[in-house]
Input
Amino acid sequence: MFHAKRLVLAHFWVAFIAFFAAILLGEWQMFMRSPLHAWINNPEHYYRSVTAHGTVMAYVLPTLVAMGFGYAITELTLKRPLIGLRWAWAGFWLVIAGTLMASVTMGVGKASVLYTFYPPMLASAFYYVGIVLVVVGSWIWVALMSINLHRWRRDNRGATVPLAMYGNLAGAYLWAWTSVGAAVEILVLILPASLGLTDTINAGLARVLFSWTLHAIVYFWLMPAYIVFYTMFPAAIGSRLYSDTMGRVAFALFLVFSMPIGIHHLFADPQVGAGFKFMHAAMTAMVSIPTLLTVFTIVASAEIVGRLRGGTGLFGWVRALPWGNPMMLAVTFAFIMLGFGGAGGLINMSYQLNESIHNTQWVTGHFHLIFGGAIVIMYFMAAYELWPNLRNCLPLSPALIKTQLSLWFGGMLILTMPWHLVGLLGAPRRMAYYDYTHPALQSQAITVTISTVGGLILVVAAALFLYILASARRTPAPVPPYAFSRAAHPHARTPAVLNEFRLWIAMMIALTVVNYGYPIYQLAMTPQAYVPVVPIGAR
Amino acid sequence: MNTPAESGASGRLARLCILALIVVTVLSAMAGFLWLPSVQADFAARGLWDSICRAAGVSRDWGSAGGASQAPAVATNVILLPAMVRPAASDVVGRGATLALNCSMCHGAQGMSRSDAPNLAGQYPEVIAKQLNDYKTGKRSNAIMGALAHGLSERQIAELSAYYAALPKARTAPTSYDEALPALVRVGDPMRNIAPCIACHGGVDQKLGAPWLEGMPRHYLSEQLNNFKSGARHNDGEQQMRNMARSMTATEIDQVAVFYSRKSGASPD
Output
């Protein structure tokens, strides 16, 4: 790498320290509402903690990881210094300023609105301004990624964009477009109300605009994980990527289909028509295609090395895989969690099945399994893989890494499986306490205790993660630049449409207009949709 | 650089992708707006165009679907807005003080009642305004208050609210977190859907339109809770108090009333 090392390190350190603080809050919440502790005396403290945990995990951690990882990919794959280093630092400090502003507001109890901040609940304006700063900081990153790629293309006419950079840009463009929904919601609807300029708010429209961001943000979180799957995993296990083109197809499909599907979060909302709910459900189903393509391609890439190592037969190559390799373990764990979480997700996105689990603990279980499990474990791997380059250190201890990954995997399953179960039994999410003495709930008490133990294991795993990174031993010898995976057929021609983004961005925007245009127009034109605001913690 | 043949292939691929997306979109739209509504009786009742409009969420005709249209029954005509809380000018408070001479017989000279009428000193302005409006429009009924509020103008109601809000609160110790608080006040009862009192009436949060209760006459509090429970009082806009009180037992109503009535300036305990 050239001169983005400190930049990347700053992003990663802040992201991971904030992550650790948020995980402590998460475990505290789990403990407080478990039968191991008496009912929390002040539920407001619980919701304050939920807001902070969600805000850090959903906005701060993934944004900083995607930004830092993106800067690293730019220098490593384009093999030239990052253009706009000062702007990148400005973006970083904006994210930091926004995080601090939102944190202080949450800390003093003026923003206990949960990280989804659904109106008509209203927090102090400082909370929303903090979120906006985080988003604006990330927009600088989007612009820099685009500029860097553009300049590189200009200097390398006709060359194929490296796959990691292609995925990186897909994530950046996806984020640029998906963050527009929440940005409009905050700037047009929430901030005027929060500043006291208006007394009513179009709650239905705000929810629809938030759903614009709410689901696609998940794929923005996911992109770095998929980049690791495609461009780090094959190299780490001594294999090659089975198909470079398939990776591009997956990234392009995510760009098109992850955006216009967010109304599946609003199945219980009366203000959205059933026809649009169905369309969003159908489009959500389309997102399983790039995921399944990815699983196929990555497993095929593993099969290459399994067979090279002497594995034969239908499944013999599985045994021959390099199971001692941390990356092998991490991707296996990620796929298992992605499998369970994805199966649960199919239930969430089905209009009718959703009825039985809507707003229950099941949903919390689902997104912890997918994001906290499958995605974050890949964030760990991205950091582990890049660390020798970033810190000029010796390779990190595989034994420690494997312990850490196993703890994370085990802890996440122990945390989320009971959540799925009690969700099916009807346990609502976002409750500060449950009456476990009630006969109807008594049998569920043990599952909450099990989840608390799972959470504790996750705390240990997160601490171990920080320890592994912090204890890396620096070496005076230069560390060669990180090399991303090569394709099995490196000289295959990449179709032009899969080497650029114009078509996919046009499709993304067109589909958004079709799927969101009328619901937004209709709600904006409905005066009865305005309801009085409910300020939280104002008195 | 791509050869012309490759460019042509790439162009064909792009066109294929666009076509596929259009087909997927049109098919899912047809399923969502035509096919699925057609098998739902209430969607399909009034023809194809109407069922498409309903599936799209057009709201205009939904109210009259059930037959004769009638105004929905609302609990109160008052919409609580943060603007109602803004501090009033001193002349407004002064005019309110003059008007309040009519109220002192029951509510006390300084808004501190010696009878079982509620204390008004320091009450939140939107609370007074809402209750007076509800008495005026008959949404809350009381023989004396209905007659008195009947003649009040919007402006006079605002002046009275500003006056009482400006008086010092009767309570010396606002309710705050304490293990010793009665369970219903502190944590409610989740399995009966009873929210804690302090979630709205001060302690955790003080919601717009929720009065402060400390030091209110015990009889007044238990009477109001019983009226909410029976539905005799029904001017809570979202039915929030009727829903809370409905599953409270007589003993619990008494406990809560005793708790809040004792937290007065006169007997702080």
In short: DSSP finds twelve helices and no strands in chain B. Chain B touches chain A through 49 residues (CB under 8 Å). Residues 265-269 of chain B have pLDDT under 50 and may be disordered.
